[in-house]
Amino acid sequence: MIRLIMALMLAMTGVAQAKTEKAIVAGGCFWCVESDFEKVAGVKSVVSGYTGGSSANPTYDNHEGHYEAVEITFDNARISYADLVALFLRSVDVTDAGGQFCDRGPAYRTAIFPLDAAQQAAAKAAVGQAAAQLGRKVVTPVVPAGQFWVAEDYHQDYYKGTSIVLTRAGPKQQKNAYLFYREACGRDARVKEIWGKDAAFAH
Fold first, then answer.
1. Which amino acids are annotated catalytic?
2. Where are the extended beta strands (E) located within the chain?
3. What percentage of residues in the chain have a pLDDT greater than 90?
4. Does residue 117 carry a pLDDT above 70?
5. Which of 91, 124, 153, 173 has the most CB within a 10 Å radius?
6. Which CATH number fits domain 19-157: 3.40.50.12160, 3.90.580.10, 3.30.450.20, 3.30.1060.10?
7. pTM to 2 decimals?
8. Quick one: average pLDDT of 17-43?
């Protein structure tokens, strides 16, 4: 009986220590980052949006100064913030300050937006570890988080969509259009080139 009570107390302590956290990162096209991180064990949800700019209520057609970013909600009893950021860095081109892959311009730059001092310390350490592993400068900045603006509904889970959209290769179902875009943009090929066997999410 005593053992059972102790086991229950330990289980309750574990539950009490588990905490849902949020992480905000920018890794180029938010469709791709959302698609990648929704597959990670311990991640509860990923939302596409805009952050880092000064204008209020940005939209896809008018988000000057903002990054395309995602807000990741995760269970830190299953995956730590540090591990999440390390995974993120190995899913992008951390050497490119002008955008990501075929998407160029300020909105498509990479960045990590910590929400508190602990996240900031973990993010900076992860960037340092990535630079040491590559033997090259990592240009992905660590920027204190500001307001995160949720993107339009049609951007959420874009990679799962079934609507027919027009692409350069003709009409395609949205989820197939996404795969066509991702391959044509060279995202996975470049991530593999940089990170080799440590490349994350590369198809």
1. 29
2. 20-27, 43-51, 67-75, 99-100, 103-104, 110-113, 149-150, 164-167, 170-173
3. 89
4. yes
5. 91
6. 3.30.1060.10
7. 0.90
8. 95
